[in-house]
Amino acid sequence: MYAEAYFYLAWARVLKLLPFAKVAPSLGTQRKETSYASTTEEALLQRKVSKAVHAMSRVTWWESQCMVKAVAAMKMLRRRGIASTLYLGSGRDDGGKMIAHAWLRSGSYYVTGNEKLERFAVVAVFGNDREAAGLSQVER
Q1: Is 81 in contact with 22 (CB distance < 8 Å)?
Q2: How many other C-beta atoms can be found within 10 angstroms of the C-beta atom of residue 126?
Q3: Interval 73-88: pLDDT, tens
Q4: CA–CA gap between residue 82 and residue 88 (Å, rounded)
Q5: DSSP 3-state of 2
Q6: What SS3 state is found at 3?
Q7: Residues in domain Microcin J25-processing protein McjB C-terminal (predicted)?
């Protein structure tokens, strides 16, 4: 799972270089939130994906900040047939400067970007329903 996380972090970083209008359709259904419910198996996978993405983001030679981590985790969860919602928000830092943030929620678990969420107003939401890519139980 760590190698997969590294791959998707690289892929998400490349996507970040493209115009957002081109990338947005691949992020899911706009203005759609997914359910806050998840099974025990999904909860375990959500935590594993979160751990892998966060661990690998620390060793990439490129910048792997909130948007890159959220998109990578979203793609990993989608591959496993687990629904998730990507949030994009804006707010202000301690100095009053405008900042942006991205985070990913799956079920009731915040997979990435859950730090200081109260600072950010949600400006866009992209929901991904379950659409398994056919991973076996061993690959999950």
Answers
A1: no
A2: 25
A3: 999 999 999 999 999 9
A4: 20
A5: helix
A6: helix
A7: 9-124
